[in-house]
Structure formats: structure tokens, C-alpha cells
Amino acid sequence: MQIVSVLSFFLVLISFVSPSIQGHAPVPAPDSGNGVWSGYVDFSPPARGSSSGTPAPSPVSEVRGDETPSEEIKGSPPTPTPAAEEDGHDDHPVVARPEETGPSETVKWCAVRDEINDCNHYLNLLKQIDGYTWKCVRRETIEECLESIKKGEADLINLDAGMAYIAFLNYSMKAIANEVYCNHAKIYDAVAIINRKSCSKREVISLIDFKGQRSCHGSYSTASGWNYPVNHLKELDDSEEKDADKMVSSFFSGVCAPSEFQGTGICSGCGSEDGSCHTNSLYSGDSGAFRCLVEELGDIAFVRDDTALLYSMEGPQNQTWSTKSIRDFMYLCPQGGCREINGYPGSCSFGTVPANVIMASNSISRKKKSVVLKTLLNGTWVDALDTWKNGAGHLLSSSTQGLYVVKKLTRSYLGVSATISQSIQKSNLVRNGSATIDSTSDGSSPSARNAQHPSVVTVFSIIVGLIFQAFSIL
Questions:
Q1: Which residue in 3, 108, 141, 473 has the most C-beta neighbors within 10 A?
Q2: What are the angstrom distances between the C-alpha of 19 and each of 90, 264, 269, 455?
Q3: Rounded-to-integer distance, Cα 27 and Cα 74, Å
Q4: Model pTM above 0.85
């Protein structure tokens, strides 16, 4: 009788704890989005005056200039703990926000600094769907926007692949739509731009020849401005320096790489900005890095492939500082040599970068996500993208011609870019003495996975003890 009792208890215990052991708790059904967004929406201009419908009410701007940036990021983005994506197949389900109901639902797009102008203009063109009102929320940095989305004070932000990786890794966010460029391209190239006269000084020139000179970067932690070229530089540099920031600072005599995150960035080469990294730096972003080169604060600029075409004297986005012709510059090929700037660098690049993405919280309700995608993909943005010109800040990239639904998990969408970002962040964590990044991250939380280990050990200890007790009775 004792044997039967012990074995019965043993079987009940196994059935009770088996879900914890296996890690297969029920997950919500994936949001397939079938029947609503089949993919690409073309923004190529239709016949003028063909649009119709009742104009949407002007969007409301929410400005909060007194917000203190979060203390979570100090010196580098925090140790990664990505939450599982709602649309994926991870074993750590996300607790979604309640479905919004009632007449006062809003979608809040977070605009960084001068992006607020674009935000108000674009959102004024969007038609309301299912009673949702669109609103612009202004913040001073991308970091503040990510914190606001984390707190539920905003819903959306458009990010480059480098920043998107940080949002995915540290702020439990996912990509829901990506920009589409000319010829339906969903990628662009990370390139280096130098003065044409530098190419004519020697028969073959390469990045190594710029050691000891000054560099301009399209913002710290961005894919084309920082991650891709720094990753290439790590492969070229003979030093044993593992810290990416120190390596770049020792390779170049001056570095201008303003950051959107408090306590990061290198700004020793940003002219009169006294070596500090101001979030409103004149030299932040791709346009700022090109300006740094135009104004001769730097000898080489790391940007996306169309930057010089857009912001040179002849470019459609030319500014008051655009005093030089596109003919004054050339692409510097990573393998050596120069190439004319035509927007198609080919092999003369550090690699292709996934198109910028619109990011939202993993916990965004399915209803709100559905409304967001239907609104964006059916929005009358044609004239805005074709004629709106605001060089101070762009809610979408200047080259954007359409949007496409992201149907992959965020980590899969970012691909090689995420791997490069991870490599750069590892070096920063080494500098700060932090834990290493989980190189096998698939969207589930390493901390959540590790938290299961003690309970698993305890359960198996009980099972082993019961087995020994059963045999001792026998």
C-alpha cells in the first residue's frame, strides 16, 4: 500500500510540474494579420487631385521638455533582456495590454526634437480608422522616446537598424513595419564618404590611410554611422584593444559621434562643441555627419549611401551649410579605392543595412496594432513624401517611398545588422564590466529562461528522493 501511495504521489507530482520543466506554457495565438495587410503599399505619386474623403482633424502635439532621461542607461545601453515577441513562437509569453475600448483611443507617435514638424504634417494626412485619434509626442532624445513607450506614454517610433536592435533588446519592442525605397528596396548601404582630393593624392587609398585623421559618424550606435564601420575597423586594426570606443578614439585623432543615449558617444572632433555630446548637436544624424565633412571638421564621414546626394549643393534636401557639390566627394571603398557617388555603391560599402523600421511595444494590443497598420498602409502620404521638405528632422527617411508590413520576428528581420550590433555592444559591456550578451537571443528573455533553472533543480531533487524512497520500501 505504501508503494502504491508513493508511486501515485510521484506520478501526480510529475504531471503537476511537467509544464515548468518543459518550459512550454501556453502562448497566445500569433497575430497573423491575414486579410488586412498583404504587404507593400506604393507611395509613387498618382494623378494630382485624385484623392478624396473627409480631411482628418489636425493631430495634437504633446511637448514635454522637462522630462529627465531614464537612469537605466549609464555609459552604454543596459544589459540585454529581450522580451518575447507577441507574434513569435517563444516560450516566454508577453502579457498584453488590455484591449482599448471607448471613444478616446489614441495612437501616439514619438517624435525626437524637430521631427515634431514632420509628425504634425504627416499625421494631418492620415484618416481616422475605428475611431482612433493620432497624436504627436515630442521628446528630446531617442532614449526618452523609448522610455515613454515603455511606460505607455507613446506607442510608435521610427528607428534605424542599430537603434531598433537596442529597442528590441532593452525595451521589449518589436518591428511592425519597414520603410521601402526606390525600386522596392528594403535595404540600403553603409558607406564612407571622403573628399575627392583625398582620392587623387595616391593611387590606392583605403581606410587604413585615415589613421590619425578625423572622423564624422551618423550618430553613435546607428548601423551605418557607427556599427558597420567600427566592426570593419576592428577587423583591420592590429591592436589588441577590445573596447570599440577606445579603439576608434585611438585610430582617429578626433571623432564626432553624438549619441541619443545619456553617457555615451564620442565628440572630441565636433568642433566648438567642447568635446561634449549634446543631443541637439549640429552634427548628429547622417546629415550632421555629412555637414561635419563639408565644414572640414572631419576627413571622412560614415553615413548611409544617399546622404551626399540628398544634402550636397545640388541635393533635394540641401541646407544653408550645403556649400559643396556632389562632385567634391567620393565613396571610399573598404577594400581600397574610390568610386563616384551615385547612390549605388555596390561592393564599395561596409554592407547592406535593413530598412528603417516602425517599432512598437511587444505589449501593444492587437486591436491597436491592426489600426496602426491599416492607417499607415492606407494613409494618403503621397504628396507629403513627394513634396514635404524639412531638413531639420525626418519622421521617415528622406528616401522613403512606401511602407511594408514586417512579417518576421524582429531579430530575424535585423539579421546581420543585429549580429554586428551585438558585437559592438559586447565590447562596451567589457569596458563597463557588465555581463556578456546572450549570443543566442531569439526574442525570449535570458533572465526569464535562467530563472527556471532553480525550480527545475528542486523538482528533480524531489523526484530522485521519491524514487530512492520507493526502492527502499521495496
A1: 108
A2: 15, 42, 56, 12
A3: 34
A4: no
